[in-house]
Structures are given as C-alpha cells and as structure tokens.
Amino acid sequence: MNLNNASKDQLTQWEQQLSAEYAAIVARKLSLDLTRGKPSSDQLSLSDAMDGILKGNYKSQDGTDTRNYGGLEGLPEARQLGADILGVKVTEVLAQGNSSLTLMFQTLLHAVHFGFEGPDSAWRRQGPMKFICPVPGYDRHFTLCEQLGIDMLTVPMTADGPDMDAVETLVQTDPAIKGIWCVPKYSNPTGVIYSDAVVARLAGLGKLASPGFKVFWDNAYAVHDLGDSLPLANLMDLARAAGTENSVVQFASTSKITHAGAGVAFVAMSEANLKSFKQSLGAQSIGPDKVNQLRHMRLLPDLNALLQHMKQHAEILQPRFDAVLSALDTAFAGTDLGQWEKPAGGYFVSFDTRPGCAKAVVKLAAEAGVKLTPAGATFPYGLDPEDRNIRIAPSVPTVAEVVGAMDVFVTCVKLVAVRQQLANLS
Description:
Layout: H1 8-27, E1 32-34, H2 41-45, H3 76-86, E2 93-95, H4 100-113, E3 130-135, H5 139-147, E4 151-158, E5 161-162, H6 164-173, E6 177-182, H7 196-203, H8 205-208, E7 214-218, H9 235-242, E8 248-253, E9 265-269, H10 271-284, H11 290-299, H12 303-332, E10 338-340, E11 349-353, H13 358-367, E12 370-372, E13 389-392, H14 399-425
Parallel strand pairs: 1-12, 3-4, 3-6, 6-7, 7-8
Antiparallel strand pairs: 2-9, 4-5, 8-9, 10-11, 11-13
Pfam families: Asp_aminotransf
GO molecular function, one term: L-aspartate:2-oxoglutarate aminotransferase activity
InterPro entries: AspAT_Ic (IPR024551), PyrdxlP-dep_Trfase (IPR015424), PyrdxlP-dep_Trfase_major (IPR015421), PyrdxlP-dep_Trfase_small (IPR015422)
C-alpha cells in the first residue's frame, strides 16, 4: 500500500475495507495497554528472592548496621555496583532510593537554587534558563524542566545520537543554555546508541558552553540488552581527558532490573560536584534505605551477577519486541505509511506515521481498546511539530496481547493515512 501513487478509487476502496476491519475490532471490546515502559510481572518475579534474603543479618560488608540512620552516600558495595554500571570511580557515586528521576530532580534543583560552585553559580541568578532536548525524547525529562521553569530547545535525534552540529551551535551562541538531556544507550524512545564520536563531542561541551553547563546523562538502559551487550563510550573518561568532568552528571537505577517500586538509584559526578550536591541532599535526608540496598547486594553482589540476571529479562522481553517488529515489517515494509526503529535493547519501539497522523492514530486505537502513549509526549510541551511520533511500550502485556494490540495499531495507522490522503485529494 503506497498512498502517494494511489488513485482516488483505490483509496476509497481501501478506506471502506479498513473501516470494516476497524468496526470489527471495536466490537471485540479490547482492553490493552502499551503506554508505559514498566517491567512485566514475570520480570518482577525474577527478583522475588530478595524477600527474606537477609535472614536477620543486617550488617553490610563494612559492618554497618543497615537498620539505623546515617550513611548519606549509600552502602559502599551498592556504590561500587553503581560505579561499575556507569563506568566511574566509586568515590564519584551515591546510592540512594528507588528513583533515578528523584535524583535528577534533586540535581536540577541544586543547580537552579544553590549552584555547584557556590551561591553565585545558581542558575536562577544568571537570568533565563534553557535546556537542550534531543527529540523524540523522554517525557519525564521535559516535565522536570517545566516544573523548574527551564525553557526547552529541541535538536533532532539522529542514528548516532543528538545532532551535535546543532547542539554545539546552540551552546556557543546562547549563554542561557544550562544543560542537555541524554539517554545514551537504547535512547527513549528511538533505541539509538550514541556513537563514540557523539559521546566525545558531548564530553567536550563543557569547553564550549557557558559556566555551570551540565550534561544530564540518564543511562537508564545501560544493561538492558536484548541480545549481546553493545558498547557505549565512557563519558566520564572522555570528560576527564578533556578537563570537563565537572560538566557531567550521570544517573542509573535498578528500577527495571529488580522490583521497580523498591529499587536502588545511582547518581555519579565529579568529587567536587558531589561535595556540593551532598550539602543540599543532607538537608533532605539522614540517609537512604540501606536495608533495601543490602537486599539488592545479596541478590546481585557484582556486575557479572547483574548481567546474568539481565539475560533472564531479555528472554522475557525479546518475544514481545519480536511481535511488535514482525507486525510492523509485515504491514509496512516497502510502503510509505511509516518508519520505525529496530532497537537492540531498552523498552520502546519508536514509530513515525505520515506527517499529521499520530494524534488520530492514538485516538482511533483508544476507541478500539488499545491505549498508547499520547502523541506528542516524546516532545517538549507535548508538541510534535509534525504530529508523527508514537512510542510503543510492549513490556507489560503478554506476547498474545502484544500481537492483538499490534493488529489494532496497524489497522489504525492504515485507516488514518488513507483518510488523510483522500482528504488531500478532495
């Protein structure tokens, strides 16, 4: 089905056929959800051994009684695991509660109101604040910026990562730009892995940008490979070599590794930045949940154990991704109806409809009983200028449910595109 070459009679025939198929789907009264990238129950069950794993022994490796107050930085063994995930020194990592998103908010808040180099470096004292957001990107990053009054500028996401020519031009010409959001491995939602050259250029931004600039490196999917582990250049090593280590802040968590609502989150930055950050963190907390950190370390004592654990996640996720990609290949390969990525890990498949169709596809799918992430969610302020991008999250439903949901999705994409083309010919 190639719409650009179709006659009005062909389009009318397709519209009638697809409308009948859609009506039959609606009559089935489905209730399926592909909205958020949450682990499935089967994935969560992989970590159920944490329940009772301490067996009354609450002492950490250094003898800390984890039931008590204190230990703002987190358990040493938990910090080591975070350091191994992010590829940094253990002295550059804090292990905290379950949410890396919380740590992102706290880090932003510290930069905005307190500054990493003293009160005069607080972003709010320097005038307007702006962040660069590669698009399509992660909606919760955008929410953080909106919450703190940080304006957002978009740059395109390429097959190698952010368009670095555009990024470098922006930071060199606009001193109000304070940072850039990055999901460097299996980027949300495109699945892109940043190339070595892109990572090196990101590491060098601290020399080009205004003082206080930060690369917010949300490495949420660092170990979430569906097959063989794929490499990602070490941002901190490159920044250290460039003398820009103070411009880098990294995040990771176990929220899609163990129990999502009860995991461990990590933040990594230079020791100078950590010293500053701990001043505001210490005003908020006497210490994280060290008992939970200890449970995690008994289940996953080192990086090798973690990687073995993630292979079990991949075995559960791969058939779901295969179902999505098979449906898209079967329906759209060789057509002009859409474009999509084939990620090798992470939690999403990014699909681009024909321009002007995404919102209508999401609406039709919802009316047929399939919930999708709102169109536009992958852009700041919910505004996709071309109304194209849709993020598909197949992790929670069963494989059979994913197959059923994709049948609906494919029908909706075709129907909306045909109706749009008919309207254009009218």
